[in-house]
Design goal:
InterPro entries: CPQ, Peptidase_M28. Keywords: Carboxypeptidase, Endoplasmic reticulum, Glycoprotein, Golgi apparatus, Hydrolase, Lysosome, Metal-binding, Metalloprotease, Protease, Secreted, Signal, Zinc, Zymogen. It holds the Pfam family Peptidase_M28. The chain has two domains: 279 residues, 3-Layer(aba) Sandwich (Aminopeptidase), CATH 3.40.630.10; 144 residues, 3-Layer(bba) Sandwich (Glucose Oxidase, domain 1), CATH 3.50.30.30. It has an eight-stranded mixed beta sheet with strand order 1-10-12-11-13-16-14-15, with helices on both faces. It is an alpha/beta fold.
Length: 486
Amino acid sequence: MTLEVKVAFRLPLFMFVLLSLGSDSYTLSERFRSPAIRVVSNETTKKAPDVAAEVRRYEDVAKRIIELALFGAAQNRSYRRLADFTDTIGNRVSGSRNLEMAIKYMYSAMKQDGLDVHLEPVKIPHWVRGKESAEMIMPRTKSLAILGLGSSVGTPPEGVEAEVLVVQSFEELKRRASEATGRIVVFNQPFISYSETVAYRAFGASEAAKVGAVATLIRSVTPFSINSPHTGLQVYQEGVKRIPTACITVEDAELMWRLAQNKQKIVVRLIMGAQTLPDADSFNTVAEIRGWQHPEQVVLLSGHLDSWDVGQGAMDDGGGVMISWEALSLIKDLGLRPRRTLRAVLWTGEEQGGVGAQQYFNLHKENISNFDLVMESDLGTFTPMGLQFLGSEAAQKVMEEVIKLLAPINVTKLETDAEGTDIFLWMQAGVPGASLHVADSRYFWFHHSEGDTMTVQDPHDMDLCSALWAVVAYVVADLEDMLPRR
């Protein structure tokens, strides 16, 4: 089985499964330009020189936002906020007490900041890791660092002990299917890119179960490791036996591969106490600065408040949460109020497939014509490199002018194809979308691991990201016209 995802590598779960199992290639750019999904349109399209002149009038405002964020009273504020939040709450897996505390924390903090804040109820999955361990007992004894994968079933209390079959691809597993019965399949797939390699984490258990495996251990989806396992969501296929599945470190996967190549018998004992409880009550957290002329029209900024149950969730996605809050704070502190409403949404249940965002979309899609731009930051808040954007050619021309306002921080590149689990449905329906592009070469070093802590974050980088986020959101929200849909 191959995985071909040409656009966002962090798709809603149902779309991820569809793309992975389908035979046709797919790009959101193509769907965006397809007449079938032009749900709404903005017929007012200014000529390019008029747009450029209108946007240039915001040069002074943009400089004021940048100066406040980088050199003024707000310097390092988003970093301090993130440190206080993550140090107080810790990680925040879907359905947990920590996530409840995080939502209450952010609601109170943004209220105290003078923003209009409310909570919107949603139902989210509640998977619990439980105690887990793995040990190689042949050809020698060695403890294996593991992290069970989200939605995995557990083992019997005594665990599962079986001989190991090590493979490097789904194709190899199919070729050696006769060897897999009763075995623990270890996937030692090389890291190519997240979008390609994540298929093993997502579907490895079901593919192994089809050929009779009793459990799977999957090499962590990361290009770099210091014996650190990475967790994430996995998806059981309908009609296929559900077997326990966990990620192991790159080092241990390669060790077992070498042992297997030397024809040595490998036996592993796996114990997992994982279980899935009934769906839990939760909330999307919403903060606003209401527009003075068109309060019903919305520019939406976002990050997701939940995380996995390891590390602090500082990078994924505490940083995205904090710069979305910070963008509103910068605008408020400068006494600015745009024509349209600026709305920061802190999603819940993103790591479980974007379930909070899906429910938000279902609740608000009847007002889709009033959504001007949807923005998401969920790839870290490292040094910003540019803005990714998906929209019509006319909207692209507007955004090319807007991003020029970031010249003081040397971030003027507008790229194609925005991405994000939580804004995907809006973009699919024709709403322009934007995502933050940062210097993310280290992102997957820490992603979904114990390494996702405040130590990864840099205060100056977060100031730069906050400034970009605030300038783009404010200017788009204050332009005379909404971004054209076609």
